[in-house]
Amino acid sequence: MNQAMYSKVAKYTKGSREYAALQYLCHSDIFNDPQTQNLEEFKNNSLDLAEFIIAHSQPCSRMLVACQLSSVDVNCSELFREVVTDEGLCCAFNTLHPRFLYKGNYRTLDDLIHGPDLVPIDWNPETGYPTKLPPKYYPRPTYGTGISLGVSVMLNAEVDEYYCSSSSGAGFKVNLGSPVDRPLISEGGVAVPLGSETRFRIDAQLTESSPAIRSINRRRRRCVFLDEQQLVFYRYYTKTHCENECLSAFLIEHCGCIPYYLPVIYDNATFCNISRLFCIEKAKLTQNPAGRCMSRCHTPCVDVTFMPDAFSSPLAMHNYTIQSEILTNLPKEEVQRNIAVIHFYYRESVINAELKNVYIGFTEFLSNTGGILGLFMGFSFISIAEIVYFSLLRPIFKFVVPEKYRNSAVITQVRAAPKVNKNWLPEEICRVATKSHNTKRREEEEERRYSIRESGVL
Fold first, then answer.
1. What segment(s) does the record annotate as region Disordered (predicted)?
2. Which of 20, 175, 221, 420 could join 41 in a cystine, given CB atoms 3.0 to 4.6 angstroms apart?
3. How many Å apart are CA 96 and CA 124, to the nearest integer?
């Protein structure tokens, strides 16, 4: 939380350009005083604030005392990259390489110190890692659950070097996010106290979306796929990136420049110097800045969020044996005053996911309609044939077929010949034949009467 190291800025006197930069970093209330901007050190100050922060902040090489990855001691310079944020210089772990994260010009600080075998990889939540991977790469996947397979760091705040704090005390701020996201620390940072061991037990939440929802308007589904909206400065769409670009456009329109921590969305855009920061702070205090633009910044349809549970306990204050050799060799007063130990690890080996899908698709609509019709109307597929017959075939038959064919009924019956037993006597065979002949004549007479009745004669 130290905004500037005391040994580096104590030499600056009141009235200098550097002293004005310190007033901006340490006293945000100065912008409420209209007389301050008329002072000479503010009025004509062309100092680049980002360069001032990089030159006077505590570097990661002094902040990070020791690092472990999966219980193996690792050089911290191989894990962390220095980045400039809205609250000064920070140390970032497992983020995308800048060439995969940005489209435009970006400010490059000290790069990761690694051998040729550690290769940066392009990654995003929708497609994940490439098919072919080198033996060693970053962003790194997790190796498992628990502290032993997580990341552990020991930090030194150097309280004696504090000139001013971004908060109300000394310590550190931690922000957890996706490797493709670059959030604002002032909005989502979690404070870590000194003289304590803090465990961040992380649960990952995956949000997925079915391709079927692409047919739904964005305002209704309230999410955006990566290939649906292209940003100007960032390669990958996130809600934070979209809002940052909206804020940059708003500040360029009102002040003609952008703060050092926002994206450069225009090639000819410039960073604000000290003299223009009064306009920036005044514009940010307006009601709903860039509201129309930010209303179009929906969450990604496929996204990974991290929900940490932080637990802190005090470090050793008495002379008993502890596991860390570094803490054992440090004076207890030094540990309580300057040191913080942080562990990052996953709680479970599975990820809870939620799927956004069409609530009622064509299949669901068809099944629901058929179920309701079948329940209340006795409707079935046979009913479809009946509807087709009575609404289509019967009218055609009525108007196309001649009337004389429609009013006559032809009934044909096929009767099997009676079986004759070989053992019957001749008079028995004659009796059966006579009975069959009489039955046939009776049936013919009934058929004739039926035909006359149908034709309307009788």
1. 436-458
2. 20
3. 9
Burial class (CB in 10 A: 0-12, 13-18, 19+), 36: middle
Strands 196-209 and 352-356: parallel
Match 């490059």 to its residue by tokens: 108
Length of the chain: 458
Higher pLDDT, 433 or 447: 447
DSSP codes joined into one string, 257-298: SB-TTS---STT--B-BGGGHHHHHHHHTSSSTTHHHHTT-P
Tell me the per-residue pLDDT of 123-162, one tens digit each, with 9 for 90 and over: 988 888 988 888 888 888 888 888 889 999 999 999 999 9
Tell me the whole-structure pTM to 2 decimals: 0.73
On the question of a cis peptide bond just before residue 289, with omega within 30 degrees of 0, the verdict is no
Task: Name the amino acid, one letter, at 43.
Answer: K
**Distance, CA of 225 to CA of 106 (rounded, Å):** 25
Reported as type and span, the H/E element at residue 452 is helix 426-455
Residue 57 Cα distances to 10, 111, 172, 212, 308, angstroms = 13, 17, 14, 49, 28
Contact 222, 368 (CB under 8 A): no
In 3-state terms, what secondary structure has residue 346? strand
3-state secondary structure at position 402 = coil
